[in-house]
Amino acid sequence: MKALVYEGVETLAFRDVPDITARDGEHLIRIEAVGICGSDMHAYLGHDARRPAPLILGHEAAGVVQGGPLDGTRVTINPLVTCGTCPACQAARENLCPTRQIISMEPRPGAFAQYVSMPASNLVTVPDAVALDKASLAEPLAVSWHAARLALAALHPSMERNALVLGGGAIGLAAALALRAMGADSVTVVEPNPTRCAFLIDTCGERAVAEPDGLYPLIIDAVGYAATRATASTHAQPGGVMAHVGLGEDTGGLDVRRMTLQEITFIGTYTYTAQDFRDTAQAIFDGRLGPLDWFQTRPLAEGAAAFHDLRHGAVATPKIVLDPWA
Q1: What pTM does this model have?
Q2: Please, are residues 221 and 164 in contact by the beta-carbon 8 Å criterion?
Q3: 99 by DSSP, 3-state: which?
Q4: In whole angstroms, what is the distance from residue 250 CA to residue 144 CA?
Q5: 94: three-class secondary structure by DSSP
Q6: Pairwise CA distance, residues 235 & 238, whole Å
Q7: Cα gap 47→51, rounded to integer Å
Q8: Residues 6+ apart with CB under 8 A from 139
Q9: What stretches of the chain adopt beta strand conformation (E)?
Q10: Which pLDDT belongs to residue 81?
Q11: Poorest-confidence range of 21-25, 29-33, 276-280, 283-287?
Q12: What is the SS3 string spanning 106-153?
């Protein structure tokens, strides 16, 4: 089969790799659409020790089951494989499973390929009326759905439900969509890239700005660099909530003294629970997250060029989805 293989820092090769078969108790999925995630970019830049080369990246995927009792079923894929028996899994907090695996990290190759193997419990059936490229957005949308759910739950009931989202990429835009779907009063997205900021305003209908102003009860950092954490610390309203989603860099930025003196709640959020993923997929199917027309599609064979363009800020759309069969 063909796959886009990460072979070293800023080096990707579209080439033949050994065919895979379904693991015991799993299903073979023909990948029809797979998105490029920020974590894929971190690996591409050599910033993710969990993803050493050579490796097939990609985990935002949708496709069609090949063979077996589910043959022909259109599915979107929850890439997080968990044990199902540990205390975290039993508490429906599967994202905290100590033995969790995710496709695009060993021992599970990713979805920048024509096929992957996945357990049935990780598959959500996609209605015929929903395009599979849109269905592949369930994974990044679920990341933000989870963060928005936790942040709103932590917000004191006396505070307004006004939010600031740092970062206008897919996770940031998805956070804005999720917050509104959950009843946030207003959402402002901060995106310093002028081309992307204009896209968010003109195409997505977002309230987007290059720099924030004022204080906000709720802030979601969808970037995760020291600079964005510093911005979040500065603009969080006393008694407010900061939810941290981005994995840009490990340290720096937080004004812990201000957070302590002003009782600002900090929440680290990682991926999503299985229920979050199902709820997000259903929100897509129901149209509650909007038209989801803010991505572009390219052939997987041109994936290296897509990464290069993203690396150099030459892409206005928040998401690139790759097609392994184009």
Answers
A1: 0.95
A2: no
A3: coil
A4: 20
A5: helix
A6: 9
A7: 9
A8: 35, 37, 59, 60, 61, 76, 77, 78, 79, 277
A9: 2-8, 11-16, 26-35, 55-56, 60-66, 74-77, 80-81, 101-102, 115-119, 123-125, 162-166, 186-190, 208-209, 216-221, 236-244, 265-268, 295-299, 319-323
A10: 97
A11: 21-25
A12: CCECCCCECEEEEEHHHEEECCCCCCHHHHCCHHHHHHHHHHHHHHHH
**Which of helix, strand or coil describes residue 1?**
coil
Query: What tokens were used for 313?
Result: 């800020």
Whether 249 has a pLDDT exceeding 90, the answer reads no
pLDDT of 48 > 90? The answer is no
DSSP three-state, residue 62: strand
Domains present along the chain, CATH in parentheses: 2-137+292-323 (3.90.180.10), 141-268 (3.40.50.720)
Q: What is the pLDDT of residue 54?
A: 96
Answer yes or no: are the C-beta atoms of 137 and 35 closer than 8 Å. Answer: yes
64: which strand partners? Answer: 30, 74
d(CA 114, CA 29): 8
Phi–psi pair at 300, nearest 5 degrees: -60, -30
Grade residue 247 by pLDDT with cuts at 50, 70 and 90: confident
Query: What are the two backbone dihedrals, phi and then psi, of residue 320, each rounded to the nearest 5 degrees?
Result: -115, 130
* Both tokens assigned to 166: 């740092």
Element (H, E) at 9: none
Quote the CA–CA distance of 39 and 140 in Å, as a whole number: 11
Cα–Cα distance measured from residue 4 to residue 55, given in angstroms and rounded to the nearest whole number: 9
Tokens representing 168?
Answer: 């206008």
Nearest to 253 by CA among 229, 282, 237, 220: 229
CA–CA dist 320, 297 (Å, integer): 6
Report yes or no: 201 and 184 within 8 Å, Cβ to Cβ. Answer: no
Stated length of the chain: 326
> Rounded to whole angstroms, how far apart are CA atoms 13 and 5?
5
- Going by C-alpha positions, the residue among 210, 245, 209, 206 that lies closest to residue 229 is 245
